[in-house]
Amino acid sequence: MIDGTAGVSGRREPAEALLDDPAALAEHDPGGMLRHTASAGAQVRETAALAAEANLQVLADEGRPRAVVIAGIGTAGRTGDVLATVAGPRCPVPVIPHRSAGVPGWVGAADVVIAVSASGRSPEALGAAEAAHRRGARLVAVGAPDSQLQSVAERARAPFIPVPRRAPARASLWALTVPVLLAARTLGLVKVNEADLAETAARLDADADRCRPTAESFVNPAKSLALGLAGSVPIVWGSSPLATVAARRFGDTLSANARYPVVSGALGEAGRGRVGLLDGVFGGLAEGERDIFADPDEEEPSGTRLRLVLLRDGGLNPEDDADEPLDVEERRADAVQTLAERRGVRCDVVTAEGGSALERLASLVAVPDFASIYLALAHGLDPMAVPAITEMKELANQ
Q1: Can you give the pTM of this predicted structure?
Q2: Which of 215, 278, 335, 389 counts the highest number of beta carbons within 10 A?
Q3: Is 114 helix (H, G, I), strand (E, B) or coil?
Q4: Coil, strand or helix: which one is 132?
């Protein structure tokens, strides 16, 4: 008989007091996921410097490409989503995230492929880099130094941006994203300048300080968000394309770090059907049984309930010709908050701050990143060591 709990530890009920005990947090986080996540600002600065040392100019020598394909899986794949969103609807060429091995059949000499892998050995990135080389497409690779991916880039005489492997891929979003953005800037697809990078790094540093382990729950936005989500089924919706990237990122980290099932996506998509979850057995039907006179901070939950997290981005420039104008997105977000309130479904709102698209994205990602780790720690889970991931890789390679 297979033991389905082999390597699994932790507790079903969260220990809220643990989050305000820095020594206990350190004990339950032996791999240092909190520390790695706090390095996001440093990741921006370091990889911007490493990208500056790479010979990216060769990408631009042949002019504007027909299309740009960003090949990678997991967090590496999210870099393509970030690029597509930061480039925006006025981007002069298609920006296509690709999460399968190889490249789309139409890719050829007129295109650029950016292969991304934190380890430098993911089959998706390696297959894409090899295919790009065979087809004569321009290639740039981003990943761990002295890796298989670097070897492929060297054979193809393509730029390679080394990203030191200091943390798991899911804690290296910014280390992987910045080189992709700077490669795209060289091609004339995005306007990301040094000031944008500096402000984004500063924003990530500031949020890391706000979310530090020694900050108590009532002043720590990440701990507060984690405690609100504890025991719930989280629904994370983004009000704009930029906020949707952050929402999907939060879904990734809640699943991997805290082992929570999550519904995440765009608020526009939710309005076409998924908003009905607010009426369901974990939403309005469950909340309708709650004692309306009870203290919400002392009330014991009677079952699993939804918890809505709404990521709002009010910084979109109306002149960007977006498919969803700013006022439509804002009205939709207001409507969903009202619906949640009417049904008694509790809702947390994270609002974007900053001038550039990249800084606004950072402001929507940082606190949720920390919240996913604190939620794992509250359940006694090591956010870095995920037995199921290791076992899946072993089984798939048999």
Answers
A1: 0.91
A2: 278
A3: strand
A4: helix
